[in-house]
Amino acid sequence: MPASTPPGLLRILLEDLRTVLARDPSIRSLPEALLHPTITAIWAHRLAHRIHRRGRRLTARLLMLPVRAFTGVEIHPGAVLGRRVFIDHGAGVVIGETAVVGDDVTIYHQVTLGALGWRQDNLRADGERRHPVVGSGVLLGVNATVLGPVTIGAGAVIGAQALVISDVPAGHRALAPVAAQTGRSGERPAADLLRQAASTGSW
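RESULT FIELD:
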């Protein structure tokens, strides 16, 4: 096969299956990998994306609707996914219409590759990118949020809970603060505990 010829759909789907087996230590066989939520979500998207590119937007959206309900993964049919993309657990993952995800990207649960919201996006020209571009080999940690037309360079790590609204260079890390330990709760002043309750919205 010439280097310029893209691989066929069947080859890509089999590659997705082997990726689950390689990256999830709880999966021991290819038949078991078939039950992983990333397979349902990514395989459906690969088909929906082809339909979307032919201009059948409504059909593509209808295809992805039950996938969202079944897996908790919402990938717009217009998004571009590379090869060997792995979505671990799946729950709460959102990938927007103009997002581009490179090869060998790992996405943990509750990750959002989103836009900045209609107030800003409705001012953009038609066809202008609203969502992130994620380079090859990037790792997106649990509950990471990447918003807007930013670029995450190849091999970067976006840590758990991180909010990213600007470009991250290749190989760099964008990490959220780690929780500070303050000793046993019984030793903390009442005012400190009250502040913690207020910050978590537990009134």
